[in-house]
Prior knowledge:
The chain is an alpha+beta fold. The protein has helices at 11-37, 42-68, 76-104, 114-166, 168-184, 186-205, 214-232, 255-266, 308-321, 348-351; strands at residues 212-213, 236-241, 250-251, 275-284, 287-295, 326-333, 336-344. The protein folds into two domains: 11-144, no CATH class; 167-351, 2-Layer Sandwich (Heat Shock Protein 90), CATH 3.30.565.10.
Amino acid sequence: xxxxxxxxxxxxxxxxxxxxxxxxxxxxxxxILYANQGTLTTAIIVDTIFTMVCLFAFSHLxxxxxxxxxxxxxxxxxxxxxMVLATFVLSxxxxxxxxxxxxxxNRSNFTLEEGAILNNIFTLIIFYFFWSLGYFLYHxxxxxxxxxxxxxxxxxxxxxxxxxxxxxxxxxxxxxxxxALIDEDPKKAKNSINQLSNILRNSLMMDKKKVIPFxxxxxxxxxxxxxxxxxxxERLRVDYQIDEAAYGYKVPPMMLQTIVENGIKHGxxxxxxxxxxxxxxxxxxxxxxxxxxxxxxxxxxxxxxEGYGLKSTRQRLDLLYHQKASxxxxxxxxxxxxxxxxxxxxxxxELSVVR
Length: 355
């Protein structure tokens, strides 16, 4: 699913396009060579197509091994050794199919000699070498760009998050709430200070990790809502319905807190009688669904850019989960806004590298 305004080509579709294009080019190049030599026949054309299909299948098997063995995570020296060996093995393994194709289509100008076999292996080594070079180079560039994007985004998010958490209005209201409680309820005032401290500390530390356990994120959310509950009192009500299976997942840090804060700022705070924040999670298969419902109304304007909190959430999900996650916000009914996030189980080997 598309998580941003840009058009994203599915990585699997891109792979098949490149795979088909590469072997089609090789086949077309081979046919052109025979045509220039004046030896092109129908049998050679059919033979070439059959051979390209076989080479296509071997390269696809090669890709499966690369992914299965996690070669994309290896350092260059180890990767280079495996690539050279794999290219040679593939060329030797594919040669009998090429020779079988020649035999089937009865090309009379071909003689099965040692030199011809070695020449065939050498030719296939060149083909698979360029295939490997293109495949690994693409993933290296993609991973490098993704890491750069992540670092830039996380730095921007940290600055904006700190700006949000440390803005004078927020601190002023929080400290005034604590000040009023010092005489009335010292214990509650102390708890409020601890909650504010936890929020600020987590804001400062959020750039240390790409994801954190769901339980840790919920602690941040509960501290924030408890602090806001002290401020809004009976105007803010909170309801949790958390699936125990959700605690086996990891989520981007401060993501839920950002959504909850957005719901209070643009929804509940503007209602005379306040409202409710409802957080619901459930797990279906390997997918965690998080639903955050808040009182209010979502009214996006075409001429206004999406707020930073929502934009950041979409971008982080896109960078971390590579189109395997989704984010939606809409009016649940006339008086409630629903934000729904779906994320897969975090797997470093699968989600941190583009395939």
